[in-house]
Write a structure and sequence with these properties.
Pdz3 Domain; 2-enoyl-CoA Hydratase, Chain A, domain 1; six-stranded antiparallel sheet; 19 helices; 40% helix
Length: 527
Amino acid sequence: MKKLQVWLPLLFALVLIAGMWIGFRLRNNIPNSRGLFQSAQRSSVQEVIDLVNARYVDKVSSDSLAEDAIQAMLTHLDPHSIFIPAKYLDEVNADLQGNFEGIGVEFFIINDTVNVTNVLADGPSDKAGLKVGDQFVKVGDSTVAGKIDGERIKKLLRGPGGSQVAVMVLRNNKPFSTTITRGTIPLYSVDAAYMVDATTGYIHLNKFSGTTYEEFMQATEKLQGQGMKQLIFDIRDNGGGILGEAVDIVDEFLDDNKLIVYTQGDKQPRQDFRCKRPGLLEKGKVVLLVDENSASASEVVAGALQDWDRATLIGRRTFGKGLVQEQYDLSNGAALRLTVARYYSPLGRNIQKPYNKGREAYNDEVAERFHNGEMMTGDTSTNHVGPSYKTPKGRTVYGGGGITPDIFIPYDTTGYSRPVYQLFSKQTFSRFIYAYYIQHRNYFDQFKNPKDFAQRFDKTGDAWSNLVNFAAKDSIQLGSLTSHDKAEVERRISTWLARQIWRMPGYFEVNNLNDTMVKRAIEELKK
């Protein structure tokens, strides 16, 4: 027994060495024996980078070289496979996660001074006593009055949750100091959820992030509690996001185990996404609003609701992004979002528009719709670049380039004069709205909600006069505007003031009173 104990370790060692030798000899006889992340030989790209680093006449950044090489490689793939450098990854991921770490304020830089324009209710800054109208003087040890830009103030204010930052602000020209404990700041997906009338609800989604389904359900339950029987679901300007969130939302509209969407790629087998549970919105009329900026996950929603005849689609043809990306984290902290599959609507429609003419042509495709007249005439031959399909109720729908709505609403192509463009492009209008609100805060305090504001706001003339003087200081002359331009600016005065007071919910509730698509949706629901 003792002899066996002495020889056993040596025996194991000999067997291990023999196994390694046999494996090495067999390795060259096994096809594709080099794995995905294994390489016995450096790639040509890596050889060139190494040579440049070792021999090039000037100093260069190897990271920049590698990033440029990756970007060049990706130009040969689809337009949605992208490389995300490490320094931008947190910011990009925050939008998908639906939150970030910070202090919970919105701000505007006016005359080199950081002005607090909104404070998140019950957020870190609200708890620390900050108010709309406060002007930052110091953040930590850094003085921020004077020369300051948006990126620098963001870096000073943001930080890990639970960390603290001392700030000094001016309030009514008097200093006020406090310490803010940073926390998780939500990036809401639901911009607005309110009752249009006694039975009609309205919900606007701006993206599909990790919190979207939860937000959507809370909004739905709130509106149903207020008597909602039918819904205007607005996903205009929604560029998409997380596929699973869109699938969960569609599940609320469809019954049984209906197919919502399926994905398939050259290296990805078909995967079906079906309804799993009873939904809150399986009954009652639904109108879905879409436009040329509704993309990706938005088109999953639009395609499923149209294919199953569950909603009437109103608007303009959607963007046409039917590709699914997966994100792979790289060793240097960067990430690669790689297209791995296409998605198909329940009827089998591939909504992806062509990208074989290069990224520039692909990105310009929406602008091309203006040139060929589609934005004004809608149902033209240029729309239907793919095959047609029949829904269960016999409606004809199309694939191969976005979702074509059932009811077309043309784009308002009425142009604006140069002063109006300057007013918005130079942010003069945004700064005016904030300044006017601060100057007349006592007046605005009388309004209980956006609906009350829309009915009783009576200072449009006074605000216009103040705007003319305010814009003149930025060398923008508004005195000679056409009646059309003046009417548009006056309309935006009320909608942007509503946003200043109630943020995006206020903006949509007031703006929708004059929104062409919303008006058409209400007409459709009354039929």
